């Protein structure tokens, strides 16, 4: 047992949640085991997660509704993110509660915090929306969606058209005070789902934005605000690699922020997949002495915290 509890923020990747309702129900059981392992090892855990397949499914369902009922206004993306947070949180908190009780841990309540994340309306990402969302449509449907919903549609590599939205940087976790209070009261908190519900501030009003926030950057901000010891970013590989998939592939175990910066400059990490994870890990590890970021597989998270595997980032 560690003497003082290590505070850990875990960012779950899509593979920890599955792609469909039945897949998610099965996936969260395995995910819950890995998280409760860390709790048994004396960690205080906060869970954040992606929502790629789930928010896409909700978005598509809401668009289908507008085709069925022409009176039905379109559902903003920010509302779809809120729905995905609640739906994923519901499955996760039930699986975590069950796993805790299966191990006779009865004093850790589990709760999901619907989390808004403020973005800057002048963030340059709004000038260049590039994050695809929803399904592929043909040119005619794309034109209709642009006119009816004010969507920005882009042709995607000959596969048809898809809606694209901005991916601005998270600037503030609106509910951070509540999240902190819950963590300090001994709760296992699920927060910042899907990168958070993107909002911009207009006086005292928070207005939903047509955007998706990278969940790794949002998790990094939550971890910094909670003064966590570890940020664990879970993905589909055990370690980060240089020259990934090539004959001279090299797996990284221990990386300083300085070295990682050099690797980023050399273009080793794919934008949209490993790059944001590495950038979030570097940001957290360099934010204060004693903070460590890890990138690894869900099943290896316990070993990674013990220094046995994963890629560890330090200042």
From TrEMBL:
Q: Which UniProt keywords apply?
A: Arginine metabolism, Kinase, Transferase
Coiled-coil residues are: none
Name its pathway. Metabolic intermediate metabolism; carbamoyl phosphate degradation; CO(2) and NH(3) from carbamoyl phosphate: step 1/1
Give an example GO molecular function: carbamate kinase activity
Q: Which reaction does it catalyse?
A: hydrogencarbonate + NH4(+) + ATP = carbamoyl phosphate + ADP + H2O + H(+)
GO BP terms in the entry: L-arginine deiminase pathway
The record's listing under Pfam families reads: AA_kinase
**Gene Ontology CC annotations of this record:** cytosol
Q: Where is the Aspartate/glutamate/uridylate kinase domain?
A: 6-287
Q: Which family does it belong to?
A: Belongs to the carbamate kinase family.
Please give the name of this protein: Carbamate kinase
Organism of provenance: Schaedlerella arabinosiphila
Please name the taxonomic classification of the source: Bacteria, Bacillati, Bacillota, Clostridia, Lachnospirales
């Amino acid at each position: 047992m560690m003497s003082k509890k290590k505070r850990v923020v875990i960012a779950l990747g899509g593979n920890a949640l599955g792609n469909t309702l039945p897949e998610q129900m099965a996936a969260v059981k395995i995910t819950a085991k890995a998280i409760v392992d860390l709790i048994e090892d004396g960690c205080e855990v906060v869970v954040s997660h992606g929502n790629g397949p789930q928010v896409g499914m909700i978005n598509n369902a809401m668009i289908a509704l507008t085709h069925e009922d022409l009176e039905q206004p379109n559902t903003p993306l920010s509302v779809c993110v809120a729905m995905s947070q609640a739906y994923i949180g519901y499955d996760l908190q039930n699986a975590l509660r069950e796993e805790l009780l299966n191990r006779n841990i009865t004093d850790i309540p589990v709760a999901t915090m619907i989390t808004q994340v403020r973005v800057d309306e002048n963030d340059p990402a709004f000038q260049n929306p590039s994050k695809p969302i929803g399904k592929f449509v043909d040119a005619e449907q794309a034109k209709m969606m642009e006119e009816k919903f004010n969507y920005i549609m882009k042709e995607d590599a000959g596969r048809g058209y898809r809606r694209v939205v901005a991916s601005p940087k998270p600037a503030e976790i609106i509910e951070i005070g509540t999240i902190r209070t819950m963590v300090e009261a001994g709760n296992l908190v699920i927060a910042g789902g899907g990168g958070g519900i993107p909002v911009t501030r207009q006086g005292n009003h928070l207005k939903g934005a047509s955007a998706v926030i990278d969940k790794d950057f949002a998790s990094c901000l939550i971890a910094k605000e909670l003064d966590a010891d570890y940020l664990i970013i879970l993905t589909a590989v055990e370690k980060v690699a240089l020259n990934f998939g090539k004959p001279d592939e090299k797996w990284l175990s221990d990386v300083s922020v300085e070295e990682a910066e050099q690797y980023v400059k050399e273009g080793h990490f794919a934008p949209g997949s490993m790059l944001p994870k590495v950038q979030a890990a570097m940001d957290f590890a360099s934010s204060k002495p004693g903070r460590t970021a890890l990138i690894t597989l869900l099943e290896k998270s316990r070993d990674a915290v013990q220094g046995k595997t994963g890629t560890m980032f330090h200042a």
